[in-house]
Amino acid sequence: MSWEYVEQKIKEALHLHRGNATRTRQQIINWAMDDPKLLSTLVKPHMVGITAHAIQRVVSGKTKPEPVPQAKPEDAASKEDSFGMDILKTIAGGNTAQFGQENYNPPRRKGGVSQGHIDAINAMIAKNGDKSD
């Protein structure tokens, strides 16, 4: 079980998906599900962390594993193609989420100006007009 085998499979997937890292990653995951040699070589350096995580889940009472979605390379392509459009729709919608604010309320529309505000501005203009003479 050599790392050269993993490198060869990664290069093959990169060639297959024309250098697209996201599609390549999904392809390697799909191949690893059917290829025990590829899976074990990929996982071996991370076995200590994986085992520690599994033990912690059992100790904390979270023994039921979370389901892993089976994404296919075609799914990654459609998500990748629509990513930019999703950002534009979010920005154009006007109701964008603000960092650190779970319940974001968009600003209220501008209302009419009160008569007191108008009088204050007119008084400032009149006062400035007297000084310039």
List keywords for this structure.
133 residues; 6 helices; 67% helix; single chain; mainly alpha
Task: Furnish the topology, listing elements before pairings.
Elements: H1 3-16, H2 21-34, H3 36-43, H4 47-60, H5 73-93, H6 115-132
If you had to describe this structure to a student in words, what would you say it looks like?
The chain has 133 residues and is mainly alpha-helical. Helix content is 67%, strand content 0%. It is built from six helices and no strands. The protein is elongated and about 90 Å long. The N and C termini lie far apart (93 Å). The model has no long low-confidence stretch (mean pLDDT 79).
In total, how many beta strands? 0
Order of helices and strands: HHHHHH
Radius of gyration: 30 Å
Largest β-sheet summary: none
Distance between termini? 93 Å
- Give the helix proportion (percent range): 55-70%
**Quaternary structure state of the chains depicted:** single chain
What is the average of the pLDDT values? 79
Number of helices: 6
| Strand residue content | under 5%
What would the principal axes of the Cα set say about the shape?
A: elongated
**Structural class by helix and strand composition:** mainly alpha
Q: Uncertain spans, ≥5 residues at pLDDT below 50? A: none
In short:
This protein is mostly helical and 133 residues long. 67% of the residues lie in helices and 0% in strands.
